[in-house]
Predict the 3D structure of the following.
Amino acid sequence: MKNRYFDLIDQSFYFPSFGFSLQENNLNFYGIPLMEVIEKFGTPLKLTYLPKIGEQIQKARKHFAGAMKKANYKGKYHYCYCTKSSHFSFVMNEVLKNKGQLETSSAFDMDLAWHLYEQKLINKKTFIICNGYKLDNYIRKIADFINEGFENIIPIMDSLEELDQYEKYVKRPFQIGIRIASEEEPNFEFYTSRLGVRYRDIVPYYERKIAGNSRYKLKMLHFFINTGIKDDAYYWTELNKCIGVYCDLKKICPELDSFDIGGGFPVPNSLSFDYDYEYMTNEIVQNIKQICDSNGVDEPNIFTEFGSFTVAESGAALYSIVSEKQQNDAEKWFMIDSSFITTLPDTWGIGQRFILLAVNHWDKDYQKVNLGGLTCDSQDYY
């Protein structure tokens, strides 16, 4: 009977996969020997394999380019990175090196964008999509960018009152977007998202407040659902409803030409992860094309906001096992030299799962264990 850790992984999953491979019973990450990294830098340690970031950006571009060509889609595609996913300069630099655009969600992000501009990493033609519920500080900083001549900064309205705030600070014509308040998935606590403007309010608001006003133009509609891009009835229903709103608006608002798809592609959380990115991209583009054609309007430029998809597969967290504890006949603990609460907070905050693999001893027998963090909090485990 094969009881080695290698046999467990080999018999349960397709391996090597997702950048992981084995060399002399030690784990490699995109060809990097992790034991050598640990011997040099110690643990706990977080690392980022930067080439994977560019690879993800190019992967999405390739799928959307192929889907648009297949559907004879006339709009353009723009890849936006959600800065809240990782603010590290080396991550941002890699995104911008691959010509990614930016999506912000706070006043802090605007400071970051200004710093990037001062470093000449972005320019006044870079798309900056400003999402989130906006307090005065955030709105002032967005206005500063507009007044400085940034051509493609687009504040996405989260409420009907937001536009009045820009009128106080913006001194030149500018573009705006509107976030559509989508319905939540059936098992969620609420029926409708707290974020965005209700479907039925958007067209009347445009006619009352925006149409004919020379100070601002409606450029974009923003669609977002928490589940991300999934192949289920809920996702397609919400997407099609939002495209329907786009078509209704486009008929009376010729300057509207962009549709922003928020909620990104899923990322691997186990070695059994299976997702057809090409198929989903084809379906999204085809759906948008068909609905626009049936309404007699031009298809929009497509923006996507990818945060986790951009960075998740590039990162790893390394820990050492410092002790073993047998708490009862069935439960054995390996204590790590760090805390999951502080270094992987999503594990306890939202129950996020990650690919978890041993770095060494793949030739040893496997056993069932729990991993415990160093803090005294009972939730500090994985």
Summary: The two ends are 28 Å apart (CA to CA).
